[in-house]
Amino acid sequence: MSDKDRPVLLIVEDDVGLQRQLRWAYEGYEIVVASDRTQALDAIRAHEPAVVTLDLGLPPDPDGVTEGFATLRDILAMKPDTKVIVASGHGARESALQAIADGAWDFYAKPIDIDALGLIVSRAFHVHALEAENRRLAARIDAGGFGGLISASPEMATVTRTLERVAPANVSVMLLGASGTGKELLARGLHDASPRSRGNFVAINCAAIPETLLESELFGHEKGAFTGAVKTTEGKIEQAAGGTLFLDEIGDVPLALQVKLLRFLQERVIERVGGRKTIPVDTRIVCATHQNVDGMVADGRFREDLYYRLAEIVVRIPALADRTGDAVLLARHFVTRYAASMNPVVTGLAPDARAAIDGWGWPGNVRELENRIKRAVIMADGKLVTATDLDLDGKAEDASALNLRAARELADRKAIRQALARADGNISGASRLLGISRPTLYDLLKSYDLHA
Ligand SMILES: Nc1ncnc2c1ncn2[C@@H]1O[C@H](COP(=O)(O)OP(=O)(O)OP(=O)(O)O)[C@@H](O)[C@H]1O
C-alpha cells in the first residue's frame, strides 16, 4: 500500500523520544507528527487526519493542560468529526475526563502501552469510517428523497408513490394533513417530479393573508385598482404560469373568492383586480389544508363544485407519530444539519433521547421535531443530545385521555409504535419485544389502524 492510500494518523507530542517511538509503532497508517498547536493545526489543514493523538502538556505550558485543551478546541472547531485521543499523564485522569466532555473521543494513560493505544486508535478509525458512511447515506436520502423528504416508513412510502404517479398528469391535488406534516415539502416534490419542473413553484398561505388582500395576491391588480396600487402587478397564479401554485390552507379562502377561483379552474383564465381583460394562464394548482373540508362543504362554508375541481386526487399525509421509525430518522437528520452550523461538537443522540423521541406524540409533527432538535443542539453540553436537552424528559403523552379505555389505547399505541421502530418494522421482532404473539399484534394493528 502506498503512503497515499493509508489513513493519516496525526500525533501531537512535544517529547522527541516519544515522537520517535510512536512514529514507528504502527503499521498501516501514514504518521504525521506535530510538536505544538500551530503545527497541529497546519497538519489538520494539510492532511485532514481522521484520528489524532494529543498530549495535553504542550509548549508553552508543557507541565499544564491549557495548551492541550486549546489545541483540542481548535481541532474540533476546524474539523468536528476528527477523533481526538488525549494522553492523560500520571494522576491527570480528571483532565482526561474533562477533555472527553469537551469533545475528545477517548484517552490513554501514560506511560504509553503501545498495544493498548493501538487498539484505541484502530477503533477510532473504524468509528470515523462508519460515521462518514452514515453521513453519506443520510446525504443520499437527503438528495434522493421525494422533494428532499426524509422518511423510511411504509406509511410515507405510500404517499410518495401516489404523488410520483400523479405528478405527470395534469390533475389537481389536495393534500390533507395536520400542521407541520410536510405538506408544502410534498407539494414542491410533486412540482419537481412533474413536467412543469422548469416553471416556478409558488406557494401562498391563504390563512396568513387578510381577506381584503387575498384576491389581489392571487389574481394580481391593475395600476390604480385601489389606493396604493401604484403599478400593475401580477398575482401568484400568473407568477406560477407554466409551473405550480401551492395554495396552503385552502379552507380559509372566503366564499366570494372561491367563485373566482372556480372560474379560473374551469376556464383557465383570470382577470386582475381592476382589470377588464381576461388573461389565459396555464398553472397547476396543488392545495392543502388541515381542516375537515368535507365538513365545511356540508356546512356550506366551502363550495362543493370548487372542492371537486381542487380535489381530483386527495392524498392524506399521516401524522409523524404514525410513521414507523421516522421520528428518530428525522431527528438524526436535523441533529446533523443544526450541529454543523450551530454546535459542531454535537455528533448524535443519546439513547435516552432516542427513546424519548420514539415515545413522544409529536402533536406539532415534523415542524415541532425540527424546532426541538434545533434548540436541543444549541443547549447540548456534550457530544450527544440528551432527553433533557430535548425537554421531553418524563413528559407523558397526552395525559388527559377521556376515560380508561382511551388511556389504554393511547398506551397501547405508544408501546406498539416504539416496538415497531426498534424492530425496524419487523412484526416478529416487535411482538417479541411486546411479549405478545404475532396474531395478537396483527389484531391490534388492525383495530388501531396502525401499519407495520
Ligand atoms: N419528511 C420530512 N423530511 C424533512 N423535512 C421535513 C419533512 N417533513 C417536514 N419537513 C420540514 O418541516 C417543516 C414543516 O414542513 P411543511 O412546511 O412542509 O409542513 P406543512 O404541513 O406545510 O405545515 P403547515 O400546514 O403548518 O403549513 C419544514 O421546515 C420542512 O422542510
UniProtKB/TrEMBL annotation:
- SMART domains hit by this protein: AAA, REC
Which intervals hold domain Response regulatory? 8-125
Give residue numbers for the modification (4-aspartylphosphate): D55
> Which Pfam families does the record match to this protein?
AAA_lid_14, HTH_8, Response_reg, Sigma54_activat
Q: Which CDD domains match?
A: AAA
Q: Which UniProt keywords apply?
A: Activator, ATP-binding, DNA-binding, Nucleotide-binding, Phosphoprotein, Transcription, Transcription regulation, Two-component regulatory system
Name-wise, this protein is: PEP-CTERM-box response regulator transcription factor
Supply the source organism for this entry. Sphingomonas albertensis
Traced from the root, the source organism's taxonomic lineage reads:
Bacteria, Pseudomonadati, Pseudomonadota, Alphaproteobacteria, Sphingomonadales
